[in-house]
Design brief:
- This protein is α/β, with parallel strands linked by helices.
- The protein is built from 7 helices and 11 strands.
- The protein has a single domain, classed as Metallo-dependent phosphatases (Purple Acid Phosphatase, chain A, domain 2), CATH 3.60.21.10.
- The protein has a 6-stranded mixed beta sheet with strand order 4-3-2-1-10-11, with helices on one face. It has a 5-stranded mixed beta sheet with strand order 5-6-7-9-8, covered by helices on one side.
- Strand 8 and strand 9 form a beta hairpin.
- Helix 2 crosses helix 3.
- The longest helix has 15 residues.
- The protein is globular.
- The protein starts with a strand and ends with a strand.
- Bound molecules: manganese (II) ion.
- Manganese (II) ion (MN) binds next to loops.
Length: 241
Amino acid sequence: MILLISDLHLEEERPDISRAFLHFLQTRAIHAETLYILGDFFEVWVGDDAISPFQRSIAQSLRQLSDSGTRIYLMHGNRDFMIGREFCREAGCTLLRDPSVIELAGEPVLLMHGDSLCTQDPAYMRLRRWLRNPLSLFILRHLPLATRHKLARKLRKESRVQTRLKAGDIVDVTPAEIPRVMADNAVRTLIHGHTHRPALHKLEVDGQPARRIVLGDWDKQGWALQIDEQGYQLAPFALDA
Ligand code: MN
């Protein structure tokens, strides 16, 4: 069994989400072969050298899961793109580049965070290119911590996000981008998060039936995509279960 989640936006201010995540690890992920976390796992990440006690406790629970035999793959989101090797070493997970094609149930599947599909926001796309450039990342990682915190606050403010994101606050994917990236990567299944609009979309790619599965954010409820003998099941669950 494989599990995919995204957009937990873990932060100390939402202990209900962290508790639900720990419960999810102990009751579901423990039975999974592989857990994929497709970005925005943390609400904010200013560098592995600035890990907070809260973030360290999350790393330790991931480490427990990986020690128990579940493989964990982590993809960057637009909030936590500064997560680095140090965190992954501590958490026992492997960084997955965005985009990645993996094999799920014998089928090539494209995994993305999803922000790169939202091309209607050119200012964000420019910023994203700059932020994902290795040289920019090198510079960012070497800024004093106070400056990094200040920048993180500014970034969150500019994306009009002081509180939790509603789908309406996030630019949705550009419809034409979907069949293009799927054809480019020769897949008929795309799984991504970011937009906070969980859904299963049917479409056509090169005249073939295809599907796009959008993972949900964890806010009012949690979301996970489970892949097993029954197929694909995208379902919400109560945070306080
Ligand atoms: Mn995102």
